[in-house]
Every structure is written in C-alpha cells, then in structure tokens.
C-alpha cells in the first residue's frame, strides 16, 4: 500500500536494479579507458596520418613506403608549393637569399618550409647522417636510407619473390610459427610493393601446411 501511494517507488526500484555505481552490477560495466591510453591512441593516429599542423611522422624505417605516400598527400593538401619543391627541386640560380626578388620569395619560403616539415616528420636518428642540397635531394636520400639504392631494392625484390615461391613449413616447425613467419614475409612483400592476390596468398599458405 505504501508503494502504491508513493509515486517514486517504481523509479527507485528501476534505478536500484540498474545500479548506482555502488551495487554488485559495477563488475559488469565496461571499463573506461584511462586518459593515458586515450592520449596514446590519439597520438598514434596523429603520427600515422598527420594533423592540420603536423605531417605524418616516420617512426620506423619499415614503415617508409606507407608514410612516404601519406607525407606527399599531406603536402599536396596543406603545403602545395612545398610539395612542388619536393618533386621538382629548388634552384634560383643564386644564393644571396637576403636579396631575393618578390617573385622568388614565395618559392624560397616553400622550399624552407618543406625542409622543416621533413625534419619534423622523420625521427632524428634516421636522418642524422643525411646531407642534402635541397628538399628533393633530401627526399631521395631518405628513400635510399630506408629501403636502399635502386640496385639493392631490385635484388631484394628478387629474393623476396623467390622466398615466396619456395615458402613451406620447416622441419620441426609448428603451424603457428609457420603462420607467423608467413605474416612477416607478407609485410616485407608489401613494404617492397610486391603484390600478390588474396587467392595467391591463401593458396601459398594452404600448400605450406604439413600433411600430417
């Protein structure tokens, strides 16, 4: 009868069944990510894709191909003149930059901005020994630093294709270890722009499985 007369009784019963943070149901709630993890995840995304003010960052040499493409796309979107300098090189035919004509200043500023963005986007120890004359030279030498010269890349691709063709389960190797090794091979293939279809990858892994 008291419950019938109390218009809030159903409300209290409902909230009690859900829990108010102190009930036994707290163990069933989804844990809230820590502020540190949220910040870490956000920084990771910013590093990979860049922001309005910062280009994508190259943290590891193995990520060069993906990050290089993203860096160029970022430049085209947010610093087009700097991207042109990166692709075409920079040479005004003079080095007395304090006396530039008005029509030369824009190109000079774009070049200096491009170099600054390259330094900002690449980890210091990766570029510490790179000497360059302009942003295009910097960009080309960074590529060699990360993946090697054209001849080295050519030979590496040959070896990777051969490794893929001959891939199989090693003696006394577990299936899980073999799959892990295949995953590393896939990453190396992608890093060197060697493309196999999904069907080819699945067939290769299936054929590599031990018979017993």
UniProtKB/TrEMBL annotation:
Q: What is this protein called?
A: Uncharacterized protein
Superkingdom, taxonomy of origin: Eukaryota
What organism is recorded for this protein?
A: Helianthus annuus (Common sunflower)
The family database entries (Pfam families) matched by this protein are listed as: Retrotran_gag_2 (PF14223)
């Amino acid at each position: 009868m008291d419950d019938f007369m109390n218009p809030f009784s159903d409300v209290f019963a409902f909230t009690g069944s859900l829990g108010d943070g102190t009930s036994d149901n707290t163990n069933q709630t989804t844990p809230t990510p820590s502020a540190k993890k949220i910040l870490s995840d956000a920084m990771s995304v910013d590093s990979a894709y860049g922001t309005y003010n910062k280009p994508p960052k190259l943290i590891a040499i193995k990520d060069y191909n993906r990050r290089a493409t993203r860096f160029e796309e970022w430049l085209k979107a947010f610093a087009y003149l700097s991207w042109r300098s990166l692709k075409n090189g920079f040479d005004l035919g003079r080095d007395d930059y304090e006396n530039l004509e008005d029509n030369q200043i824009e190109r000079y500023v774009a070049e200096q901005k491009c170099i600054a963005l390259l330094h900002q986007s690449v980890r210091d120890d990766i570029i510490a020994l790179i000497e360059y004359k302009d942003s295009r030279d910097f960009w080309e030498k960074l590529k060699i630093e990360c993946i090697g010269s054209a001849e080295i890349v050519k030979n590496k691709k040959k070896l990777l294709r051969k490794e893929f063709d001959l891939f199989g389960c090693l003696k006394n190797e577990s299936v899980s270890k073999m799959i892990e090794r295949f995953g590393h091979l896939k990453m190396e293939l992608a890093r060197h722009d060697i493309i196999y279809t999904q069907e080819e990858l699945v067939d290769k892994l299936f054929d590599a499985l031990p018979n017993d």
